[in-house]
Amino acid sequence: MKILVPVKRVVDPNVKVRVKPDHTGVDLANVKMAINPFDDIAVEEATRLREAGHATEVVAVSCGPDACQDVLRTAMGIGADRGILVRTDAELQPLAVAKLLAAIVRREVPRLVILGKQAIDDDCNQTGQMLAAMLAWPQATCASAVRVEGDSVTVTRDVDGGTDTVQLALPAIVTTDLRLNEPRFVSLPNLMKAKKKPLDVIPAETLGVDLAPRWTTLAVNPPPSRKSGVLVQDAAELVRRLRHDAHVI
Ligand code: AMP
Question: 6-37: buried (b, 16+ CB within 10 Å) or exposed (e) per residue?
């Protein structure tokens, strides 16, 4: 079985982002970029499934500019066997990404696609769901455990106050939650080996997909700055302040 893992290049989660002065977006100049953390988990899970003999090949795919090759190399450093860059400099919204991924699925014919539940830059949480709808495949979102058995995949999902376990017939779409696994550290030798793995570049325009954006960003604003805390002398003052002043603290 082949597993396809879409990986997005996003601002490194450890970077404190700055909003551009004209509020049109986040300033990406000279900012460290990285693989989306949920996609890191997706590649790890796919690699574990291959190592356990449930999959024969793991293919990572990224849609975007040439720079996305770095996250494909990271995915191959974790364990993906090869990478595909769907190359475009166009702005990509989740609907466009889902259409590009659907085209790649039709070419590659994987039995399982494991995506992140969301990209940490736009927090859309839409691509996996749209891809499942386009392919008419079953989907399980926010997976905290994945078990492949024969022609089906059993997925435990984190839901409010507990878990929900569902079984899907393959081919299927799964999106990852943080609790699914702890991705391995990518060692330098593995990163070097990843440089030798195949990476195909497919120009997005050859896939015959309408990439036109469907929304316009009106403004991006940083969160309001928090007021500084208040030091209290003792528990009695804390209780008094909580009772009378909590709304102003
Ligand atoms: P989103 O719907 O934007 O929150 O993204 C959800 C998931 O879709 C991500 O975790 C990735 O697995 C996948 N994805 C989103 N954008 C891209 C992209 N440009 N290239 C590859 N995969 C993507």
Answer: bbbbbbeeeeeeeeeeeeeeeeeeeeeebbbb
